[in-house]
Design goal:
Strand content: 5-15%
CATH superfamily of the largest domain: Butyryl-CoA Dehydrogenase, subunit A, domain 2
CATH class of the largest domain: Mainly Beta
CATH architecture of the largest domain: Beta Barrel
Number of domains: 2
Number of helices: 18
Bound molecules: flavin-adenine dinucleotide
Number of strands: 12
Order of helices and strands: HEEHHEEHHHHEEEEEEHEEHHHHHHHHHH
Strand order of the largest sheet: 2-1-10-11-7-6
Structural class: alpha+beta
Radius of gyration: 24 Å
Helix content: 40-55%
Distance between the termini: 72 Å
Length: 477
């Protein structure tokens, strides 16, 4: 039990899980053509752990063998910086474009490990279950997906008030073997490529919603567990034509539970609203940090892309172009600085048990805005170049290839290289892959209003208001 290779990861996905996509039930997710590129990317991440073992792993506290740094409980600043550096290396491997790298759920599970005392406050067995599960995932290098939110249906009503109170995932009955659950959860990114599914708290539950206050984990091939994927973005185009969709489409799925049995040893919260609503506030913020590190890497990539485009069309010397690209670089640098500071916050949360995650929360507000701005700049800099991107087949056709070379070349760049660059940009800002990137960044950490209103209630907001009171009072006296 140690870090897995890419090959072992791929083999582990051939487990008979129930996954539907485009009307078809897949026998083997690794053989479905639109998934192959992503499976290969994820496999390369597992291989990377072997290639850069010293930077990406640490000794398992239980067995001493190398395990992923994304499970590390960081009790010192040095340890937090080590795990943050490992997360940056792995995010960089995928240009920050895969939100749910295995690192994300590993970090989330580490959060729960740090806060497990809350789970066991009434019954110790739930905290013990969590600790065992965390060790299993860490030492076996499982890849997790997670699903937290009820299907949208009618958001003006709670889950129990919906026309079908079994639409949102809930408890059906308890048995000697465990809990039987039924309903659905939305979304579950990475589902076809994960080994384990985590179901847990996110938005608070209200009194009366006890059957919906659940936290548990299951292997993906559990009987009755089904995943219905959205249409894949990889339509078989070459990596020249769709450089990102063909490699980094992490997929999203609706998770359906058809009277699924959850064994007791995999249950972490069962109907306790107070624990359900309290536990997240006690987590140090490992998952938040991982998400913001990945976002930082993506902003760097977008700034680099904008610079490439400006140079390829001979606009790099213009002041307004330099100012626009400078703004993107400044945004990426601002985020980098905050990430460095946020790394220290997870240590405080781990050692003091009183998490302080304001910097990571700030980044949840900043990163989507910075990504939107970067996409806007890339579109504005590109002009028609973003659209006039013939395919790889056009370059292979001798009847027209000469015209393409003559009319689509750039400043010091061949037509083929220039078109390849613009195709990369279009995949990032125009294709469904790129559109989802923004939707993901807005929503992965909750809805954008939720991420902002938490600051409305923060103590510093009162301090800011008091500054205004001071001058008002001075003039009144
Ligand atoms: C690409 C993508 C990938 C995702 N991957 C995962 C995943 O892997 N695992 C997972 O668990 N979840 C995932 N999610 C889901 C994510 O957690 C949710 O999108 C997020 O929590 C918001 O919930 P919702 O989508 O149901 O939107 P809603 O909560 O229904 O929000 C829709 C709109 O209503 C507004 N709104 C919300 N509450 C109120 C209110 N009280 N009053 C007025 N307006 C309100 C929101 O601001 C928003 O504008 C993913 C989402 C996306 C887009």
């Amino acid at each position: 039990m140690s870090i897995r290779t890419g090959k072992e990861f791929v083999e582990s996905l051939r487990d008979g899980r129930t996954v539907f996509v485009n009307g078809e039930r897949l026998n083997d997710v690794t053989e479905y053509p639109p998934f192959r590129g992503t499976v290969a990317t994820l496999a390369s991440l597992y291989d990377l752990q072997h290639e850069r073992r010293g930077e990406l792993t640490y000794p398992s506290p239980k067995t001493g063998v190398p395990v992923s740094a994304s499970f590390m409980l960081a009790e010192t600043i040095e340890a937090a910086e080590f795990r943050a550096r490992a997360e940056e290396i792995r995010a960089d491997h995928t240009l920050g474009l895969m939100g749910r790298l295995p690192d994300f759920c590993n970090a989330m599970l580490t959060d729960f490990m740090a806060a497990r005392a809350v789970l066991g406050v009434r019954e110790a067995r739930y905290a013990e279950n969590l600790a065992r599960y965390y060790e299993e995932c860490r030492d076996r290098d499982w890849c997790l997906t997670h699903t937290l939110v009820d299907p949208q249906i009618d958001r003006s009503k709670g889950p129990a008030e919906q026309p079908d109170p079994f639409a949102a995932l809930r408890l059906v009955r308890e048995t000697d073997a465990g809990l039987v659950v039924r309903g659905a959860k939305m979304l579950s990114t990475l589902a076809p490529f994960a080994n384990e599914l985590w179901v847990g708290p996110f938005y608070p539950r209200r009194a009366g919603e006890e059957p919906y206050a659940l936290c548990f984990a299951l292997p993906m091939d559990t009987p009755g567990l089904k995943f219905i994927c959205r249409e894949a973005y990889d339509h078989g185009r070459s990596t020249f034509d769709r450089p990102l969709s063909s490699r980094y489409d992490e997929e999203d799925a609706l998770a359906v539970f058809d009277d699924v049995l959850v064994p007791w040893e995999r249950v972490f919260i069962n109907g306790d609203i107070e624990i359900f609503n309290r536990v997240l506030a006690r987590t140090p913020g490992y998952a938040m940090l991982q998400g913001t590190i990945r976002g930082m890497v993506k902003l760097r990539f977008l700034a680099g892309l904008a610079l490439h485009i400006a140079e390829a069309i001979g606009r790099g010397d213009l002041l307004h172009v330099q100012a626009q690209i400078g703004e993107l670089v400044a945004n990426a640098e601002l985020v980098s600085g905050l990430v460095r500071a946020a790394t220290q916050e997870v240590t405080w949360g781990t050692t003091r048990g009183t998490p302080h995650r304001s910097l990571a929360a700030t980044l949840w507000v900043l990163i989507p805005q910075a990504q939107m701005r970067a996409a806007e700049v890339i579109r504005q800099l590109s002009g028609s170049g973003l659209i006039m991107t013939p395919s790889e087949n056009d370059f292979a056709n001798p009847e027209i290839a000469g015209y393409l070379e003559k009319y689509l070349c750039g400043k010091n760049v061949s037509a083929r290289d220039r078109v390849q660059l613009f195709k990369l940009a279009w995949d990032m800002v125009g294709e469904p892959f790129g559109s989802r990137q923004l939707q993901y960044e807005w929503f992965y950490s909750g809805d954008p209003y939720f991420t902002r209103t938490r600051f409305y209630r923060s103590p510093v907001t009162i301090e800011f208001k008091a500054m205004v009171d001071r001058i008002l009072k001075r003039d009144r006296n």
